[in-house]
């Protein structure tokens, strides 16, 4: 477990790091190459407008140099919202999860998850947390199950549109 983690809201200056991590995550999980300009613009738009997305970053507090605590980014996730008429409330979707290899299996995602779960439970109208995971990503699935999440039994279908010129 990571002994000294602090969760903070992403700021505009985090855009490049979050874009780098998104590119790495897309390659590691789906062997997809993301366009750096597009992902950078998308993250910037999400950081600027919490109605689009909310990004959280886990900071590893490394110790004290003089009187300043040295911290490094250890992982991230993004939240989006989905209205549920069935429940008359919002599902919060956990997306864009990434923990760099040096910080994996140390409780970084668990800390991020606990943080957003606490926020969700404190927010009126939130009915739960959801995420989607690649079918073959067994390690991630074990992590989610260990935190009490369960397979909801859905498959995701999509119809992606080509970018407009």
The low-pLDDT segments are none
Domain count, please report it. 1
The radius of gyration over CA amounts to 16 Å
- Distance between the amino and carboxyl termini: 47 Å
- Kindly report the spatial arrangement of strands forming the biggest sheet: 1-2-3-4-5
Specify the CATH homologous superfamily.
Gcn5-related N-acetyltransferase (GNAT)
Secondary-structure content class: alpha+beta
Number of strands: 5
Mean pLDDT: 92
Label the overall shape: globular
GO molecular function, one term: acyltransferase activity
InterPro entries: Acyl_CoA_acyltransferase, GNAT_dom
Organism: Lysobacter koreensis
Domain N-acetyltransferase: 5-165
Structure notes:
Helix 1 packs across helix 2. The chain is globular and about 50 Å long. The protein has one domain: 3-Layer(aba) Sandwich (Aminopeptidase), CATH 3.40.630.30. It is α+β, with helices and mostly antiparallel strands and 165 residues long. Strands 1-2-3-4-5 form a five-stranded mixed sheet. The longest helix has 16 residues. It contains four helices and five strands, in the order βααβββαβα.
Topology:
Elements: E1 5-9, H1 15-30, H2 36-48, E2 54-65, E3 68-84, E4 89-98, H3 108-122, E5 126-131, H4 138-146
Parallel strand pairs: 4-5
Antiparallel strand pairs: 1-2, 2-3, 3-4
């Amino acid at each position: 477990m990571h002994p000294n983690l602090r969760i903070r809201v992403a700021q505009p200056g985090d855009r490049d790091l979050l874009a780098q991590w998104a590119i790495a995550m897309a390659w590691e999980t789906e062997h997809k190459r993301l366009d750096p300009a597009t992902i950078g613009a998308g993250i910037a738009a999400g950081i600027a407008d919490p109605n689009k997305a909310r990004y959280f970053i886990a900071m590893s507090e490394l110790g004290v140099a003089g009187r300043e605590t040295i911290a490094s980014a250890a992982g991230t996730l993004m939240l989006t919202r989905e209205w549920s008429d069935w429940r008359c409330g919002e599902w919060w979707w956990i997306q864009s999860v990434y923990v760099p290899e040096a910080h994996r299996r140390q409780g970084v995602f668990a800390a991020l998850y606990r943080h957003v779960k606490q926020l969700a439970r404190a927010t009126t109208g939130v009915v739960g947390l959801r995420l989607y995971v690649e079918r073959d990503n067994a390690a991630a699935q074990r992590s989610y199950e260990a935190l009490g999440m369960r397979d909801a039994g859905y498959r995701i279908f999509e119809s992606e549109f080509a970018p407009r010129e």
